[in-house]
Design goal:
Structural class: alpha/beta
CATH topology of the largest domain: Rossmann fold
CATH superfamily of the largest domain: L-asparaginase, N-terminal domain
Strand content: 15-25%
Radius of gyration: 20 Å
Strand order of the largest sheet: 4-1-5-6-7-8-11-12
Number of domains: 2
CATH class of the largest domain: Alpha Beta
Order of helices and strands: EEEHEHEHEHEEEEEEEHEHEHEHH
Number of strands: 16
Number of helices: 9
Distance between the termini: 43 Å
């Protein structure tokens, strides 16, 4: 029988109603006690790393989880992490980069309803996660509502429904059906073009800017003044950035000359951006911004933090951002060898 480590970090799955609303109160042992069927799947060790609502999750917590997973992988066949849903995709993406190329399943899961509730989705999600953690496909995954999702392609797209998570611009790794894991034919998770070692370094000074019509160019002065080292800009459509009234191009160019790393992506979650198609994309691309391609917002933010944790040299950051580490990005053929 395989052996799996269960790490509890909090979230709705471990919450109960308190004076100020749902609050994480249940331990890893409490959660496991509600699902006795798990004993038939594998041996389980439990560890309580933290107990927080995932809205309170910080990059420091990603590093703590990564360190716990890294030092435990040799002792277990797989790892399951209970986590709040609100920032689960950020954590799964961060782990995809920090953990390096893993040779075992690392599964992040949670629920929309507490483990203590009568009609909770938590039991199914946890059982499915342990089945996945005992599987043969390695990588960092989000398992939710019967779907196995590449961690760096996951995103929460619904606030209440049990099918809260989707795989963005990438096939499901597999499904869990009737107690069996069925992998998608031809899909191999976390096997990007570049194998990489464990590295939990990061720089949290990354700002996410979603453009709206009328965005004041002075926002970039404020961002720089606050000490940010990188910006992820969500442009319009394919990633377009205004260059006429209230042009943002000159301010972007100024910041880049000062050593700021800037990614430009699309606000649309599906199908990715392409800065080469329209003039509003080409003008900002000419200034040397980093294209976001089809990466999720969560992957872009965490990858840039991780990149800046390794180097502040804009060329070095650009090279990391243009490298596929965990199947987080579909690169054009002419950039795949960077």
């Amino acid at each position: 029988m395989k052996k799996v480590l269960f790490i509890n970090t909090g979230g709705t799955i471990s919450s109960s109603y308190q004076e100020n609303g749902l609050t994480p109160t249940q331990s890893a042992e409490n959660i496991l006690a509600e699902i006795p069927e798990l004993k038939e799947i594998c041996e389980i060790d439990a560890h309580n790393l933290m107990s927080i609502d995932s809205t309170n999750t910080q990059p420091e917590d990603w590093a703590s989880i990564a360190r716990m997973v890294h030092r435990s992988l040799d002792q277990y066949d797989g790892i399951v992490i209970a986590h709040g849903t609100d920032t689960m995709a950020y954590t799964a993406s961060a782990l995809s980069f920090m953990l390096g190329t893993v040779d075992k399943p690392v599964v992040v899961t949670g629920s929309q309803v507490s483990i203590l509730a009568e009609h909770s989705d938590s039991k199914k999600n946890v059982i499915d996660s342990f089945l996945t953690a005992c599987g043969e496909v390695a990588g960092v995954f989000v398992v939710f509502n019967g779907k196995i999702i590449n961690g760096s392609r996951s995103s929460k797209i619904r606030t209440r429904s049990y099918n809260a998570f989707e795989s963005i611009n990438y096939p499901y790794i597999g499904l869990v059906e009737n107690g069996k894991v069925v992998y998608t034919e031809g899909v191999f998770a976390n096997r990007g073009t570049a194998r990489h070692p464990y590295n939990d370094g990061y720089a949290s000074e990354v700002f996410l800017l979603r453009l709206i019509p009328g965005t004041n160019p002075a926002i970039f002065d404020a961002i720089q003044g606050l000490g940010y080292k990188g910006i992820v800009i969500e442009g319009f459509g394919m990633g377009g950035v205004p260059f006429k009234e209230r042009s943002l191009i000159s301010k972007i160019e100024e910041l880049m000359k000062d050593g700021m790393s800037i990614v430009v992506t699309t606000q649309c979650p599906y199908e990715g951006g392409d800065l080469t198609i329209y003039e509003v994309g080409q003008k900002v691309l000419e200034k040397g911004v980093i294209p976001g391609y089809d990466m999720t917002t969560e992957a872009l933010v965490t990858k840039m933090m991780w990149a800046l944790g390794q180097t502040t040299d804009p060329a070095g950051v650009a090279k990391i951002m243009a490298t596929n580490y965990a199947d987080e990005v579909s690169l054009p053929a002419d950039t795949a060898s960077l």
